[in-house]
Amino acid sequence: MEILPLLGSFDAVVTDPPYNETSCEWDVWPVGWPAMVARLTDSLWCFGSFRMFWERRDEFADWKLAQDVVWEKHNGSGARTDRFRRIHELAIHLYRGQWEEIHKATPVTMDARKITANRRQKPGHWSDIGNSSFASEEGGPRLMQSIIYSRSCHGYAVNETQKPEGIVAPLLEYAVPPGGAVLDCFAGSGTVLAVARSQGKRAVGIESRESQCDEIVRRLAQRELGF
Ligand SMILES: C[S@@+](CC[C@H](N)C(=O)[O-])C[C@H]1O[C@@H](n2cnc3c(N)ncnc32)[C@H](O)[C@@H]1O
Known about the structure:
- By secondary structure, the chain is of the alpha/beta class.
- The protein has 2 domains: 8-103 and 145-221, Rossmann fold (3-Layer(aba) Sandwich); 108-143, no CATH class.
- Helix content is 19%, strand content 22%.
- Helix 4 links the parallel strand 8 (181-184) and strand 9 (202-205).
- The protein binds S-adenosylmethionine (SAM).
């Protein structure tokens, strides 16, 4: 809250806030943060559970919803037997102003099956959500699907709720142009910062626990070898 007003603007904020759902002492929602980051960017990817977004919906009043993606994990959280075992989390994309002015790179995976895959007629009941269709060929680009599987970080996590780079990378690829700048105001172990560096982007991270800041420094000190 003290640092945010000192920062300049960012192409996007990509962040993973405290959901307010665990007994971790740091897991407390800082009231007002979505409004504060709205002064720094027009594009926000935010991780969370549906319960978190539902309970905090008024906090996102400055934002319009663009889309949501599902992070499918290999394991579940919670051992309650009175509900389905939750093996997913959400990341929602919010924006401000005109959608046309928001930077976005078409998200693709290189596994198209047929040349006709993306040439089908748009069903009549779809409203106009923009023209994002393109022709492709076997093994070529295909519009990335909104359920993204990535193994959790169990076994090597240094943050209690660490996100794998595999789920953060497509969000950053989408929202931040090459050489652009991203803010993660709940940086944890520094996953967004590490992904930003590997994509050639600039990043600022804020993290309240000094032990996590040490982990970030250690993580970012490891450099890729230039093979
Ligand atoms: C869900 S975790 C982020 C995990 C991160 N995405 C990763 O992959 O390691 C949220 C982090 O926010 C930090 N945090 C909680 N309240 C904060 C605040 N007011 N300001 C900055 N960081 C805070 C917590 O210490 C925690 O590490």
